[in-house]
Design a protein that fits this description.
CATH topology: Pnp Oxidase, Chain A
Number of domains: 1
Order of helices and strands: EHEEEEHEEHHEEHEH
Low-confidence stretches: 1-6, 223-230
CATH class: Mainly Beta
């Protein structure tokens, strides 16, 4: 990968050791993967042992935001300044090799290490919730109502600093052993996968004179390198 912009700090935790040629540390690559994802897996330690939870998120600059109910135990636990690990993975394809050992997946992933802090400033909190909506559908906050005072009070928002980050990427076909290639008789290759939107379905209260927004009709996830949320 060609570096673009400043790099994230790379430490012992974030350095890719297994197949290091698949590692990438430049800001453009890391941000593009984070901006394309919907769901992260958030890992942290509790007094009852380690926990890993899937949740939605948004990236704004050098921070990630997650949210939930004020009673959310996980967010309450990490929000006091706990170190956390956050992972985003995008599956781009299935790799079919001539041997079971070499079957794989094409993917783009990011591992982030940072510190979680609860957001108490109402301005930042509201902006974070808007960012979560924009993570799903850029342009939606121009149409949908933002959080009101009651909703802000009932929502806990946690900011996770991106202290260390690295990406790991696999592309292309299988890495078969020469003897399996020479033996022949087995199809090998890779099957690309992509998120493909269907036909928009209006809800039961939809108004006939309200057109479907362009960002819904032509919905697509951000492509690699299209990061804009600085």
């Amino acid at each position: 990968m060609t570096a673009s912009g400043s790099a994230w700090r790379t430490g012992r935790r974030s350095k890719v050791r297994r197949l290091p040629e698949r590692g990438a540390y430049d800001r453009e690559t890391v941000e593009a993967i984070l901006d394309e994802g919907f769901v992260c897996h958030l890992g942290f330690c509790t007094d009852r042992g380690p926990a890993v939870l899937p949740t939605g998120y948004a990236r704004v600059g050098d921070a990630l935001y997650v949210h939930g109910a004020t009673a959310n135990h996980a967010l309450r636990t990490i929000g006091a300044g706990m170190p956390v690990c956050l992972v985003v993975t995008l599956v781009d394809g299935l790799v079919f090799a001539r041997s079971g050992f070499h079957h794989s997946m094409n993917y783009r992933s990011v591992v982030v290490y940072g510190t979680a802090t609860e957001v108490r400033d109402p301005v930042e909190k509201r902006a974070a919730l808007d960012a979560v909506v924009e993570q799903i559908a850029p342009g939606r906050t121009a149409d949908a109502r933002g959080a009101n005072a009651r909703e802000l009070r009932s929502t806990r928002v946690v900011r996770i600093s991106i202290d260390e980050a690295s990406a790991k990427i696999r592309t292309g076909g299988p890495k078969d052993d020469p003897e399996d290639i020479d033996a022949g008789g087995v199809w090998a290759g890779h099957l690309p996968l992509a998120v493909v939107p269907g036909v928009p379905v209006p809800d039961e209260h939809g108004e006939d004179d309200v057109p479907v927004p362009d960002y819904v009709v032509h919905y697509r996830r951000p492509s690699r390198g299209s990061s804009t949320r600085r």
